[in-house]
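so my prof wants the structure for this chain in the tokens format not the other one, which i didnt know existed until like an hour ago. anyway here's the sequence
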Amino acid sequence: MLNNKKVAVVLPAFNAELTLERTFNEIPKDIVDEVILVDDASSDKTVQLAKKLGITTIQHQHNRGYGGNQKTCYEAALKSRADIVVMVHPDYQYTPKLITPMAGMIAFGVYDCVLGSRILGRGALSGGMPLYKYIFNRMLTAVQNILLGQKLSEYHTGYRAFSRELLQSLPLDQNSDDFVFDSQMLVQIILAQFRIGEISCPTKYFPEASSINFSRSVTYGFGCLAAAISFRLKTLGLYSYPYLDLVRRR
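here's what i got, hopefully its the right format
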């Protein structure tokens, strides 16, 4: 626990057999009370390895997509009565060693959501992020900041921590089951006026780490822009999309 708050780590997994153990071994067990892995119908031995490691494991019988996986992750974490939930990808692209400071920023009431940013500092390119992805990230983030009225360094990290109150407040079931879930969730968080913090996070790109290809990146980018535009339309009173209808400001 951290400041008398239960901390749960959720691992949205898909074919993570080769990197899961390295990720799990770096999770700070002194403050993390439970680790929950949701397997999205992997074709490798992710589930068997997770159970061998003693991880609470949930298995989708059919692939539900990255967003669908997260929905199950957060539902399971809330059922476990977690006060703070940290999402870490089990592909070892992000170091779990930052779970403690990220969870601490929530445990002591500084923020409601904390993002592990690959862009703060100079870690992205040195960690192997492809140049086109770095440029794409910077351009997309700039447009999103303008539309959403924020100053975040990036919206596209998969390393995130949330308070229980935040997760209970958002209509996450209305979000996409695909990768754009992340951006839709951030739009909901901003609309509800939860506090967002960032921490610099090194990243590692290597063959075993998961990554979407160029065509899916383009589709994802347009989805992120659509989410930011939907926020602007909502705040201007011009139109409200279903996934924003149930969001209530704090």
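also thought this was worth mentioning. The chain has one domain: 7-245.
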